[in-house]
Amino acid sequence: GRRGPGNGRGSGLHTAPVFSGVPSGGHRAGVGAAILVGRKWYAPALDSLPRHDLINLGSPSTSTTASSSAARSVAPDADTTWSVVAASGPGVANCSSPIPASVPGDIYTDLHRANITADPLEAFGDWNTAWAGRTSWRYSRVFFLTPEQLARIQDGSGLLVAEGIETNATVRLNGKPVITADNSWLTYTADVRGVVRQGENQL
Fold first, then answer.
1. DSSP-based three-state secondary structure for 126
2. How far apart are CA 27 and CA 142, in angstroms?
């Protein structure tokens, strides 16, 4: 992403990713990133889905505070958490190794929590962190699918739903590009039935 708080630059993932299995219907997907597991779901309202159809991929510390009711109602996948690292640009000199990240969240907050930058909202904070907006960042985490979950995906739907990616980003699942984002106001959905696998998955 290229936008963030204060200076209009930076990177952020604004809602908690979620994996789920969803039935057909005319509703817009309403939260984070989700794999829809199970029945023939297409574009559901995630806050209306049964709890067992969702695997929240948001950070455990933020899953209960996300603005979406779906993010609040779904327990996070506690197997692992998000991390972020500078992929290219001036940030490589400051953040060449992964640091803990929050999703939903933004790069400025993550850098501050890791003691790489001072508070970006204090005096000259915008100026002193401008390099973050000229850096390409890579957010990543792993999640796990049980044999039962994978079977439900293969027999029904497996949708990755991402809402609030700010702004320009490529989402890769197990190394394969599945979403290209260029508008933080849109919800992106990708069919990932042929991409997810039993056990560990890399997002």
1. helix
2. 28
